[in-house]
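Per your request, structure below.
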């Protein structure tokens, strides 16, 4: 029966067929029916399993069934909160794709771009707003949006929003949304923090879960290779050529590291581009489009992009830096093996990374042996050693200068060699993509 079993409206079904979909995924089969009935939902599913359509389709159906009132203006009726701008764009695309035969208006608002165009779109009126928390709060403070008419609230990738320190922003936003609403919370993992949040913002929710919790996608082959820090770039270049990889997503722990990897790949003749929070929205869009079009063989990203990248055909995900959080590992490798396709995930494990590997093994309930990469031998890297000047025993005491007679009328002072000023220490620093308030406008 496919999607026809849900009872979606003709116009929504027309959008589904135009998008080329005929068979719902497990999470869609579990979530759509209770969502259409107006129930609150906690949905858990692995990445790449069609979760976005699981809430977009019932949202479109319900809004189309109740036409907008004359106060549409700054009063949207549905709000979707996402942790990153890439994910906001992805949801906005899904809304436009499935709702192409409806008269509903939607707008996505996120940081990193000028607010002017967003202000114009909001002034025209929107039924659906897809937003990141920080930029939405900016609009709320300006008075350019009013959430008092929200009927449906969606918290997408809720665990990621908590990881990124958005919990206080999310609670401030929810406080402005009517209590009499439908709330749909979707998360790749269900942690105690998610359970606590759900208890406060959902009413008698129905739990729908596709696949075993904490399990990674079965279609993904996972490999762990030993790689000293100084040999990782050589191993990356070797692996790219040895396995003839063509569409590869490489994860770095930091923005500084992502840029460094990208430069080394370029010097090695591998077309690559980096994407992280220091890039402007235009730069990030060009990077993604270039990667999708095959202009770049490798996309180097930080965890900000782990859930916002939805590119068909990524054959390999390489964890250049193993993530310190097991949940991030799941989200990273979920960029490959999507929609039933196969994929490979490769993780480089350095000397100091075994504690993180242990967390991943505990999280997924599986042991991963760390092997040597076939055919790769790390080059001997000469680490410069700073040689200290040792004073010989017989010269342990400084040589005494002969006493000099002071000029007439002046006191005698001991002779000493002036001390040389130590050079100023310059601390090189970089910022991680993880964490708290620094994310407020993303």
């Amino acid at each position: 029966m496919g999607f026809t079993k849900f009872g979606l409206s003709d116009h929504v079904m027309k959008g589904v067929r135009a998008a080329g979909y005929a068979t719902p995924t497990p999470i869609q089969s579990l979530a759509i029916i209770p969502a259409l009935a107006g129930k609150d939902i906690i949905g858990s599913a692995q990445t790449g399993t069609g979760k976005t359509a699981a809430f977009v389709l019932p949202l479109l159906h319900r809004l189309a069934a109740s036409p907008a009132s004359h106060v549409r203006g700054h009063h949207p009726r549905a709000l979707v909160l996402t942790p990153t701008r890439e994910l906001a764009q992805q949801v906005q695309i899904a809304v436009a794709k499935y709702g192409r035969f409806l008269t509903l208006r939607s707008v996505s608002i996120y940081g990193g771009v000028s607010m002017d165009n967003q202000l114009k779109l909001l002034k025209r009126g929107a039924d659906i707003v897809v937003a990141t928390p920080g930029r939405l709060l900016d609009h709320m403070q300006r008075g350019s949006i009013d959430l008092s008419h929200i009927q449906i609230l969606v918290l997408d990738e809720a665990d990621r929003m908590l990881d990124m320190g958005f919990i206080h922003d999310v609670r401030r936003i929810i406080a402005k949304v009517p209590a009499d609403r439908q709330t749909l919370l979707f998360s790749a993992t269900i942690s105690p923090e998610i359970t606590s949040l759900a208890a406060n913002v959902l009413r008698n929710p129905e739990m729908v879960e596709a696949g075993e919790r904490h399990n990674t996608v079965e279609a993904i082959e996972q490999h762990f290779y030993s790689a000293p820090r100084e040999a990782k770039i050589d191993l990356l270049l070797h692996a790219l050529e040895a396995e003839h990889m063509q569409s590869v997503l490489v994860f770095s722990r930091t923005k500084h590291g992502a840029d460094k990897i990208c430069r080394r790949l370029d010097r090695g003749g591998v077309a690559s581009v980096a994407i992280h929070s220091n890039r402007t929205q235009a730069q990030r869009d060009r990077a993604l489009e270039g990667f999708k079009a095959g202009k770049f063989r490798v996309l180097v990203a930080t965890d900000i992009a782990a859930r916002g990248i939805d590119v068909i055909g990524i054959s390999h995900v390489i964890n250049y830096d193993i993530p310190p959080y097991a949940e991030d590992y799941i989200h990273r490798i979920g960029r490959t093996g999507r929609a039933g396709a196969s994929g490979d995930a490769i993780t480089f494990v350095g000397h100091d990374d075994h504690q993180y590997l242990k967390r991943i093994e505990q999280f997924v309930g599986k042991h991963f042996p760390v092997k040597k990469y076939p055919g790769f031998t790390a080059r001997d890297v000469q680490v410069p050693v700073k040689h200290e000047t040792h004073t010989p025993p017989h010269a342990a005491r400084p040589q005494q200068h002969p006493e000099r007679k002071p000029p007439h009328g002046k006191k005698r002072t001991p002779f000493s060699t002036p001390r040389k000023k130590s050079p100023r220490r310059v601390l090189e620093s970089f910022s991680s993509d993880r964490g708290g308030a620094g994310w407020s406008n993303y």
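Residues 381-407, 410-442 have pLDDT under 50 and may be disordered.

Regards,
D.
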